[in-house]
Design goal:
It is a single chain. The chain has 152 residues and is of the alpha+beta class. The protein has a domain of 105 residues. The chain is 43% helix and 25% strand. It has one helix and six strands. The strands form two sheets. The protein has a four-stranded antiparallel β-sheet, covered by helices on one side. A two-stranded antiparallel ribbon has the order 1-6.
Amino acid sequence: MKRGRTDNSEMNDSGVATMIEYVCISGTLVALFIVMLLLVHAYFMEGPVDTLTYSAFTDIGNGVSTRIVDVYAIAPDQGNITSNYDLPDDIAGQSYFIEITGAASGQNVAISRNSIVSDIALAGIGASTHGQSTGNTTGAGVNRISYDSNGV
């Protein structure tokens, strides 16, 4: 009996080569698919959500600024006034923070969450005789703007 190659060995080698080619191509495609899945979330989901969140923050900042200006416009010389208003509880499924920032000469309404920040100017009341606005809030619950002529 003679050892070594037989006529059937060429057919076996052909089958193994085809299988190795299939495994290599499939493995490469699976690796590229995984990379695409990781990038799709970052580019097609987070980018538009951040853009919409910034736009919503700008709208909320303009609304808060307008409400503060309205309260100061009708503020009495003696006494106090309070206005309650409601904001969206969350934007894109997450909460946010609102703060009045700056000095009396230039104040802003800053709406922020993580790395997204929107600063909206308080339309001219910073330099008014009513003094400096201060405070902060979140979107949850009913919010309140108060003015007290005694400065309390």
